[in-house]
Specification:
single chain; alpha/beta; 7-stranded mixed sheet; two-stranded antiparallel sheet; 54% helix
Length: 731
């Protein structure tokens, strides 16, 4: 179906292409062959900085700007492909979408299919759920939204990179391709409807649309970047970059740039891209207004074209290597990231361990080879085939739709099968181990979980098949997601959520308050409370410890409201715990040496100020020292490491490295009337903190403790907990 506004064929085009050529078929724009040298050069620059950034981030810490370069190029070319046939009334949605599908889908689906195989063969099953979930999202071109959702999840901030994380930019482009023709066609429709006479140009209407998208999206980008980590992936915060490319194309139809100025602009554009690649880093607010710098850079290069002066950069653009790299840029982008993510597993590195330099070099070589053959054997034949179909007297577009759906199914179905197998295993119940006698005494089997850390215990290693929970189960063995489902709020939620997890009829009333590390000890306290017939209420908020220090706006609101609730309830004992890596007001600690005594003391003072208010309300305060942090100690994903190496020393960490100087413990030591319970002996012995203790996986995600191991600690925490509660009741 060809869609045209009324009397469209009688109106003048938006502007003539430099070559003066006209479309060969409805739905196509004039040839851009005379632009290809500089655009291919810009593509080469973009893919080079992206790949170097991914492989060697310290060399080009701002290499992520290469993606923004690609977005501007897409906006420039696609606007031309749509606007020119629209101006003559010969634009076809079916032809446009068919061409995009033929151009992009075969190579991307081939990459995703191979990625599924690589995941099945080399990646630990603990990562299958996340990887296959995002492979499916990538096959459906919604990976950017999937990553945006994860980026605002507290527990996801420390997750390993997805094997298809780079598909977020391709998803953003596809969403742009889906919407942009509709926007420009609607502009053309309104323009022709209001001014039905010869000589009407679409340029004003398109300029207004492009300008509106540019301004609104840039404003959204600036605001969202300041308020949400998801801003990096959102289509709404990136649309202005595509619009910038469209505005550039529109402007170049009206402006002729002198040769000397064009050469100067080209060099300036190159300088801006190189400078941002070298100077930007992870701390740079991005995209925000800062993305304007590389966007202006690529705009200057494209506007400069192939400048005639010898001192211009045209000689660089013509280099065969530069042009080849531009040709394979799409395929290279597709292949390099999955190879980089899977390589550590192929060479037997522990999850989270830095990839060796030679392995990164091998990744680069393999990616370049695969890009060459992907371009030669997939992209070029498909482009040639689709061109023949588009030139046919009666082109059929249904075939590409069928092939597109088939390709997505070929990727999605095996990925869904792998996803389902992991979900089924995670849903299986792990052994609890701890039993409660009639008199309330808690017992645990010898050498099970924390029992293996008791004095005199001599426990052997267990076979990988006997580890409980299995590494796949361990990744999901979380109180907040299972027995405490709905009790731990997250994100911007400020609801004061109190969950009764002990004996609801208990006359001794206990509460525990804090972040996800307070949730770590809830399974232990829950077992103790039920055995003692105590009431136990949880107040949990991910990433939000009960401190006087400022954290985030939503956390501060939750803390104030929760503190007020605790004061009103006047619990007999309030247990407090928090992640030692977040010594607010100083933010997150990335390395152990960053937690200086001064920072620890400031954070401890902020905790103490809140605890004093609880004491004044009549509650005793019992603080629990935080558990070791394997991520700080060098093992960022314990379940995956155990899946790879079993119950052995490969996944253990040094106590000196992993056990931080907890501000909560310091506050307990320096605040009168506060009792400190230190469970470190259940996590570490002889200077080492094992990943598997008594056949139980200790950590489920970075430093979060599995529910199973926390339960195994109950019999050995019970004496100290009981003593603290008895002391509070005796006051």
């Amino acid at each position: 179906m060809t869609v045209a506004p009324p009397r469209a064929t009688r109106h003048a085009p938006v502007g003539r292409h430099r070559s003066g050529r006209t479309p060969r078929h409805p739905g196509t724009a004039a040839s851009t062959r005379d632009l290809r040298l500089e655009i291919q050069a810009v593509r080469a620059i973009a893919i080079a900085v992206v790949v170097v950034y991914h492989l060697f981030p310290r060399v080009l810490p701002g290499g992520y700007v290469g993606v923004d370069v690609f977005f501007v190029i897409s906006g420039f070319l696609i606007t031309a492909h749509i606007a020119k046939p629209l101006s003559t009334g010969r634009f076809s949605f079916r032809v446009f979408y068919a061409r995009r599908a033929w151009r992009l889908l075969p190579a991307s689906m081939a990459t995703l299919f191979v990625t599924v195989i690589l995941t099945a063969v080399f990646v630990p099953r603990t990562l299958w759920k996340d990887f296959t979930e995002q492979i499916i999202a990538s096959a459906l071109y919604v990976e950017n939204w999937a990553l945006a959702g994860n980026s605002v999840d507290y527990s996801a901030l420390a997750s390993d990179s997805s094997i298809v994380q780079h598909f977020w930019s391709l998803s953003t482009e596809e969403q742009f391709y889906a919407v942009w023709p509709l926007v420009l066609w609607f502009c053309a429709f309104l323009r022709y409807r209001r001014r039905r006479r010869n000589g009407v140009s679409l340029a004003p209407a398109i300029a207004i649309a492009l300008g509106a998208v540019f301004v609104l999206s840039l404003a959204s980008s600036i605001w969202e970047t300041a308020h949400s980590p998801a801003s990096y992936f959102l289509t709404t915060t990136r649309a202005w970059e595509f619009a910038a490319g469209g505005l550039l194309w529109l402007g170049l139809q009206r402006v002729r740039i002198p040769a000397a100025l064009a050469a100067t602009m080209s060099w300036a554009g190159l300088a801006l891209i190189v400078t941002t690649s070298l100077r930007f880093d992870a701390s740079t607010p991005f995209p925000s207004w800062t993305a304007l710098i590389p966007v202006i850079g690529v705009a200057l290069i494209i506007a400069g074209g192939m400048p005639a002066p010898r001192w211009g950069p045209a000689f660089l653009y013509r280099l065969r290597g530069v042009q080849w790299l531009g040709d394979v840029s799409y395929s290279l982008y597709l292949w390099h990231w999955p190879l980089l993510i899977v390589m550590p597993f192929v060479i037997g590195l522990t999850t989270g361990e830095a990839t060796l330099l030679w392995a990164k070099g091998l990744v680069l070589v393999l990616a370049l080879v695969l890009a060459h053959f992907s371009r030669r054997l997939i992209e070029q034949p498909v482009i040639a085939f689709s061109a023949e179909r588009m030139r046919a007297p009666r082109p059929r577009h249904r075939g590409i739709l069928v092939l597109a759906v088939a390709g997505m199914l070929v990727v999605a179905l095996p990925a869904a099968g792998m996803y389902g197998s992991v979900v089924r295993e995670q849903s299986a119940s792990a052994t609890t181990g701890v039993t409660t006698a009639a008199d309330g005494t808690l017992t645990s089997p010898d050498c099970y979980g924390a029992a293996a850390m008791q004095p005199g215990a001599d426990c052997p290693q267990v076979a990988a098949s006997d580890i409980s929970p299995s590494p796949v189960q361990a990744a999901a063995d979380d109180f907040a997601d299972q027995s405490g489902s709905g009790c731990q709020i997250a994100g911007d939620d400020t609801t004061v959520k109190g969950c009764e997890v002990g004996d609801p009829d208990g006359t001794v009333r206990l509460a525990i308050v804090g972040d996800s590390h307070a949730a770590n000890v809830v399974p232990s306290l829950q077992i103790i409370a039920k055995a003692k017939h105590w009431s136990l209420t949880t107040y949990l908020h991910s990433g939000c410890p009960m401190t006087r220090a400022l954290v985030t706006e939503s956390c501060n609101t939750w803390k104030a409201d929760t503190l007020e609730r605790l004061q009103q309830e006047r619990y007999d004992v309030v247990f407090v715990a928090a992640m030692s890596r977040t010594p607010w007001p100083h933010g997150i600690i990335r390395q152990a040496d960053q937690l200086t005594p001064a920072i620890r003391d400031a954070a401890a003072a902020a905790y103490a100020k809140t605890w004093v208010r609880l004491q004044q309300a009549g509650s005793a305060v019992v603080a629990l020292r935080d558990n070791p942090d394997p991520g700080i100690g060098g093992v960022s994903d314990v379940p995956s490491c155990v899946e790879q190496h079993g119950d052995g020393a490969a996944c253990d960490v040094s106590e000196a490295d992993a056990l931080l100087d907890d501000p909560v413990a310091e506050a307990a030591r320096t605040t009168p009337g506060v009792t400190l319970i230190d469970p470190t002996a259940m996590f570490c012995a002889d200077g080492s903190c094992p990943a598997v203790i008594g056949g139980v996986v200790v950590y489920r995600q970075v430093q979060h403790v599995t529910q199973t191991y926390a339960r195994s600690m109950a019999p050995f925490l019970e004496p100290e907990v009981t003593a603290a509660v008895d002391a509070a009741l005796a006051r």
